[in-house]
Amino acid sequence: MMWTAGIVCVGVGSSPSSVEAFFVRFSGSDTAAELAFKRNLVTVLVSAQIASYPVEVVHPDGGGEITGAGFGRLDICPVGPAIHNDFYGITGSGIPAGAQLVFETLSTTVTVTPDLVRPQWVFVAALPTAVPIGRNFVRLEVGGWVSNSVPVDVSAGPATVIRALYSGAPKSQPYTIALVANAGIETEAGSLVGDPLLTNRAGFHDAVGFCLRSLLTASEDVVRQGEWDREIRFVAIFDATLPSDDANSLVHELTPNVMETRRDRLTTFLSRYGERADIVLVIHASTTHDRASAWFTTDAAQPGTPYSYDGIAHVHGHFASTPGSAALSVNMNRRGLTPLHECGHAISDFNNGRIVDLYVDGTPGAFVVNKKFRAQSADAVPPLLASYDGTNFPSDQQRDGLGYPAGWKSYHPAPIDATRPNVMDNYWLAFDDPQRCRLDLLIHPWVRDRLRAKLMR
Amino acid sequence: MEPLHPDLREALKQAHPGLTDQDIDRFEELLARRMTYDPEREAERIQELDRDRAEMVKRLMPRYAQVAQVLAARGAHQDQAAPKVRTQIKPPDP
Description:
- The complex is a heterodimer.
- By secondary structure, chain A is α+β, with helices and mostly antiparallel strands.
- Chain A has 5 helices and 33 strands.
- The longest helix of chain A has 20 residues.
- Chain B is built from 4 helices and 1 strand; from the N terminus they run ααααβ.
- In chain B, helix 1 crosses helix 4 and helix 2 runs antiparallel to helix 3.
- Strand 10 of chain A pairs antiparallel with strand 1 of chain B, so a sheet runs across the interface.
């Protein structure tokens, strides 16, 4: 680009040998509106040059004066800044499985295998330090498929405190799952102590990557089916400056080794970062209380989408007054399905239907969607579990591959995969790989309907 | 709540001679039931269950926390899918 008197000259072309010259002319007779428009044209051109973005200019046939300008179309979009050891993501559409990120400079090519690949999103839990600092061009590729190359400026730090990993639906309150690094722990004795997680940022990133894979790539497709996850906002918070005071202590120890969230602290905590979530996954680093637990959501009273269960009217609330939540150890066993299992609880609701653990018998009580009880343990399991929105759903006669223990009165919905434990049962007992466990024929559509009600709000 | 890992169940029984699967199942029942009560509306029920659980641990599984920690420390919770990086230095232009 070059300025001369009242003219801005621009060379546009895909290579030095194909450059064409165009110009924007400022005139004393321009109206205020024309001047503003021309200034904006030049701003677009300068911005494109600085960022190395492709640019398109509009001009009359046979004339070089620019009458319109815009950024060229790119088929991928980086999410947020590229910072060593911070989260990194690229969005697009139709991204094939197995896609890798290729960072290129004049002297180096660095290929990074991401932690997660979805058709709309590629996610890296920690951007490797092997990616050179400074201007890179990044693209996605796998096999013969290659995306556009996009300029990115890579820096060494500092890593961000709050980061939208994926922005979800473009609306004011998209359905949001927050992954939060815990700052303080309320002990069994009631005192508050610091959570060592705040000195283990790498561990937090790793755990976030595992949570996302558990939710979006395990055999159970309840969240990702139909690519509904493109509507979900994922956000991570790691604030190493937080004191372990009452407001920042988001988990509580339960004897002997369980951690629960302090669910009533979550909404206020998130609001300090300008966030509001439907589900909060609190990652902690306790070495003594590492067994995960979850609390159901408490839906806001209004609005909601009605449904019926055994002929009784209920609603899927569109918003949460208290988000569903889970406390997850940074060291959780990566062979398991713990994040997905806990989210199964957390997405359900105290008043509008609870999804409970199937690995214990339990007792009748509040409204539970995925469990019923016989009068006597010797009674046959009824053929039907429930009627949901007018459709009958069968019972699990066998309790998937595990079998109902003698003495149990409870029974469950028929499974999707009868050979492996239900995701809400003891998935550790899967004969091969817990990651291959599925939900059941009732909970899958029930959760999908509940999720849809919230996604469409 | 995260289901009990079968290795922990076995380790608990080894550490507590006389402890039965039924004892552990009863404890698991209490834990799971606790998490179905609304902390804002049913705090007393939760406290009651917590007292029952604490009593069970003290009476039947006093080394529960210790056993769980040993097992957790033994487990290698390494991420299976850490990003893999391949760096290629381009040759200088001739």
